[in-house]
Amino acid sequence: MSSYWPSLFGGMMLGLSAVLLLLINGRIAGISGIVGRLLGGHQAVPNGAFVLGLLAGPLLYAATFGGFPAMTVSASWPVVVLAGLIVGLGTRMGSGCTSGHGILGLARLSKRSIVATGCFLLAGVATATIMGFLS
Length: 135
What we know:
Blueprint: H1 5-25, H2 31-39, H3 44-65, H4 77-93, H5 98-107, H6 111-134
Helix pairs in contact: 2-3, 5-6
């Protein structure tokens, strides 16, 4: 059971940050929208502060626990970059990402977010299944 504490704590922190952003700024914590607005030059200070907080999180973790958790990425850098671009395209097509739809959209019982999150999950299951057969 103790192996689940970091994930539970991380989930609670995500929820707390999403709720605080909504209450304080009236904005949905959809990372793709925040980064898109930042790159477009809109609301640079609040969006920049949010992105800096995202980047500072792992550094704070490493400082607190004496290093980063063990992680292995078996894909090549071109595959990782291509996957990131495909995810970015998908967030534009779906009018948001898993954080906006999955965390706050579901909490607000948004029908659009329920459908989008279902599509995210089905696509993930299909991709993992296909990749399992190919490897």
